[in-house]
Design a protein that fits this description.
Blueprint lengths: L1 H18 L6 E3 L5 H4 L3 E4 L3 H5 L7 E2 L7 H5 L7 E5 L4 H12 L4 E6 L1 H9 L1
Parallel strand pairs: 1-5, 2-3, 2-4, 4-5
Organism: Maribacter litopenaei
Protein name: Rhodanese-like domain-containing protein
Keywords: Signal
Length: about 120
Amino acid sequence: MMKYKLILFLCLILNLSCAQTQTPSSKPITSVTTDELKNVVLLDVRTPEEYQQGHLENSLNVNWYDSDFVQQVEGIDKDDTIYVYCKLGGRSAKAQEKLKSLGYKNVVNLEGGYDAWSSKKQ
């Protein structure tokens, strides 16, 4: 009986240690650092008009509403970590789910969107 408890305990520890290394599925955009953004693919899913009014540096603009959204993101490596944002967080959450369904492994929705980011900067 003690042997089974020990095995169960070791499995639990192993599981918890693996879970801590996974990329979170979402995080507040206001907690993201500029250095952190240098190591990810930054995907802005707003319209081109919204993007032109202001965007995060080095972001790739792919309009969520475009009928060829899937084709436009195909050039992104599925193993890359992708941070996706929009104006407030609704479209980016939908884009995140779509990307995950397409096999992208590390997709993080930046909660609060560009509005929260630009408010933080002021």
